[in-house]
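pasting for ref. prot 1 ->
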Amino acid sequence: MRYQKIPDETVRRLPVYLRGALHLSRCGVESTSSEKLADLIGVEPWQIRKDFSYFGDFDTPGVGYDLSSLVSRVNNILRLDAGHKAALVGVGNLGSALLAYPGFRTYGFEIVAAFDIDRRKIGRRQAGVSIEDMAALGALNTCGLHLGIIAVPETASQDIADAIVKAGIKGILTFSPRRIAVPRGVKVITIDIAIDLARLPYYLPSNRR
């Protein structure tokens, strides 16, 4: 089911709500309120209620949110319930960490293909994934993968994006600070850790006048 005119900020918060709901479920909690969920994840209760309102009724008056149902519905909205396989391009320090990161499985993601240009890495297996030559990116067309993760130097990111889009990738998570241009119908999400870190000093106590 496609939902129209949903604010991007709402979509960004949905996985946060899901993470909170999963945590409560693992603690043996069966139902919760927007207030308790808000306290756990650090947002306002009204924001949770507003975000959920885009998708219909989530809670039961006097009971709150049934966590099993909440997890199922948010998974369905985000299309996580079917599971997703992704290709990783760039197996340097960052790429290696991504391959080893177990948190992707919580949301149904699995990196099943990895590519690099380093001849010393090509042909080896890392975290259970065989590292292929970057020249074989076109083979993604035959793998049925639609998600790609780019963890290459900034100067190579656009070329890699072009190659994986040509190979059928429709969703890209990139760790390159460079803006990537893609055709309509392809979604790019950029994670720039340095940019987020650059915000922190603003909030720190300072002796500057």
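and prot 2 ->
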Amino acid sequence: MKMKTLAIAASALVLLVSGAQAAPVLSLSPVVSSQLVGNSFSLDVKITGLGSEIVSVFDLNIYFNPAQLQAVSYSLGAGLGGPWTDIPAVPGSPNSFDLFAFSNLVDPDNPLTDDDLAAVQTDDSFVLLTLNFQAVGAGVSQVWFGAGANERDLVGRNAELLSGVQFQDACVAVNSPTGGNNSCNQIPEPNSYALLGLGLFAAFAPTLTRRRKAD
């Protein structure tokens, strides 16, 4: 009975891992960054795990702490496929990027044009855009995707929002050029916990089996 329970638990973990990997992931890269006050640096917004889906429109708000970081500019990624149009962010928002862009290859009234975009957006992993910052103050700033209405929207085929998208934030530690010990402490992603569980099961299953036989 114990071994059956363990087998069921292992199967559940496998499904959890495979399910996490199957969903599209929008991430900021690098996840952890260390900068000195005055440095200019960039974070890429990457999409992975699209499979047969596409990204035809995105509407994203990305936040940060203005005490540590200042938004400088952004640029659309080369991997989007075909021509894209972006709506310039409204100035005067010191703590976020407000980003909206759409593919000129897609006509919302003609779903067949989705295949035109899919033909050029062939990579399963590519950069949507690059964010450019300047480090302005010592401390630690998370950089995160907003969770409000129209703050984390990705449109795929048939002009429908992509569902089940996972979002991975980033952390930037800023120190003075004369010294400092600010650093980021990252929390493992949910699929990392699942992999850890599988590893623990693999490590302890033989011991549990031997004990059962001994009993």
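The longest helix spans residues 190-214.
The two ends are 13 Å apart (CA to CA).
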